[in-house]
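Morning F.,

Quick status update on the modeling queue. The single chain you submitted on Monday has been processed. Sequence for confirmation:
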Amino acid sequence: MRRNPIRRTVELMADTVLDRERLLREEVESELPQFVQACQEDADFVVMHQDAFAPMLGSNEIFLLGKAIKYAGLNGKEVRIIPSTPKPA
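Structure tokens below.
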């Protein structure tokens, strides 16, 4: 009995999405344990300081920030980023 190729494609796509989500969770849990802990708190949002991810350290920081935001969303959390306070003149 042959399987429907369209159904097989959908199954492969679902597996790929689940694999990507699992890999994302593993990376964020490994790299950002305090962020993960904040996502587990009983709150609607997670607050981060803008300097928590420094773009001048390389593009990996920006990708990690995006993954952290995605991780928070998967856990039903909103992410709020607060700016630096201006230094007195």
